[in-house]
């Protein structure tokens, strides 16, 4: 839709029957690689058929960079946006969500036009919970579990892979089939499809018990406490993102790092490679073109809407 070679400052495009005004297309969002806003919109356009099933009907929190991610010496200005702004097009699908003392209106990334509009807002990252809205706007039970393997100082992807394999053994024993995603930031996310019969609190309790069990069995490798003081050389097995109020970066979202890395679904075979690393957006597009989505089964197995 917006070829990377077209770096004009402004365009009008038609997406899904909606007219969008795209601005500042020549803005460099990743100075280290020279990646422009036009390239980002092009990426999200091309990856939409794979990303949307993992985000559909979930309230989307966006992480927006005002003028790009910046450099190692000077980070770019960034902010989280939950509520849908008044300037949002009327056709953007949305749902209200009651918080402790207020109500937010969230966009739902259910179609290409909404995804392109989000990218136009300089929202590089999209974060969603593990539950979806039902057809009537009610909040349903989670349809997936997520475990975030986050390496502390002195640890890295190799240690995360070691923990991921331990987690896989446990989840397989209880009938779950975990699927890995290199987060595009530091660690690895593990997703497992659920049947929707248990609440967020129940799934959080299971994930917490798993984390504490692995911490007890492998104290030199795994930690379940988020305090940085106890995480050096270990992997935090963050179970808390199963809390119904928390979110995780959606698979195939870009990350606001120095380089345009992606939360990239992977295979277990890939995780065993000593050359494992985080992937950038052009690599992800090449992989999808050749092999499809390794995480497709996660969304395909969601219980039907009601």
Question: Could you please describe the fold and organization of this structure?
Answer:
This protein has seven helices and 16 strands. The chain has helices at 37-55, 112-120, 157-173, 200-217, 268-271, 281-291, 296-300; strands at residues 10-15, 18-23, 28-30, 35-36, 61-65, 78-81, 94-98, 103-107, 123-128, 144-151, 179-182, 188-193, 222-223, 235-238, 248-249, 264-265. The strands form five sheets. A six-stranded mixed beta sheet has the order 13-14-10-12-11-16. Strands 6-5-9-15 form a four-stranded antiparallel beta sheet, covered by helices on one side. Helix 1 packs across helix 2 (112-120). The protein is globular and about 55 Å long.
Keywords:
alpha+beta, single chain, 4-stranded antiparallel β-sheet, 306 residues, 6-stranded mixed β-sheet, 27% helix, 7 helices
Instruction: Report the total helices.
Output: 7
Name the quaternary structure: single chain
Bin the helical content.
25-40%
Class by SSE composition: alpha+beta
Give a short account of the largest sheet: 6 strands, mixed
Give a brief rundown of this model.
This protein has 306 residues and is α+β, with helices and mostly antiparallel strands. It is built from 7 helices and 16 strands.
């Amino acid at each position: 839709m917006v070829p990377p070679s077209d770096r004009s400052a402004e365009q009008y495009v038609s997406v899904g029957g909606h007219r969008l005004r795209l601005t500042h297309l020549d803005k460099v969002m990743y100075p280290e690689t020279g990646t422009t806003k036009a390239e980002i919109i092009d990426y999200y356009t091309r990856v939409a058929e794979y990303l949307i099933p993992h985000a559909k009907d979930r309230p989307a929190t966006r992480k927006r960079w005002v003028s790009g991610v910046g450099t190692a010496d000077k980070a770019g200005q960034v902010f989280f946006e939950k509520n849908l702004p008044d300037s949002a097009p009327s056709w953007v699908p949305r749902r209200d969500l009651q918080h402790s003392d207020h109500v937010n209106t969230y966009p739902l990334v259910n179609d290409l036009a909404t995804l392109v509009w989000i990218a136009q807002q300089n929202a590089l990252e999209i974060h969603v919970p593990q539950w979806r809205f039902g057809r009537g706007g009610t909040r349903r039970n989670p349809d997936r579990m997520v475990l975030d393997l986050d390496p502390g100082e002195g640890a890295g992807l190799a240690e995360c892979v070691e923990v991921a394999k331990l987690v896989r053994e446990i989840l397989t024993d209880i009938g779950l089939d975990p699927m890995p995603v290199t987060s595009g930031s530091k660690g690895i996310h593990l997703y497992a499809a659920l049947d929707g019969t248990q609440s967020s609190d129940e799934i959080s309790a299971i994930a917490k018990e798993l984390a504490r069990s692995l911490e007890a069995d492998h104290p030199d490798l795994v930690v379940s406490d988020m305090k940085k003081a106890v995480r050096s050389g270990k992997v935090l097995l963050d179970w808390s993102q199963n809390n119904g109020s928390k979110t995780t970066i959606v698979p195939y979202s870009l990350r606001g790092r120095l380089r345009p890395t992606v939360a990239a679904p992977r295979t277990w075979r890939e995780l065993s490679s000593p050359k494992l690393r985080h992937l950038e957006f052009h690599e992800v597009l090449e992989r999808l073109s050749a092999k499809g989505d390794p995480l497709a089964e996660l969304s395909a197995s969601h219980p039907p809407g009601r």
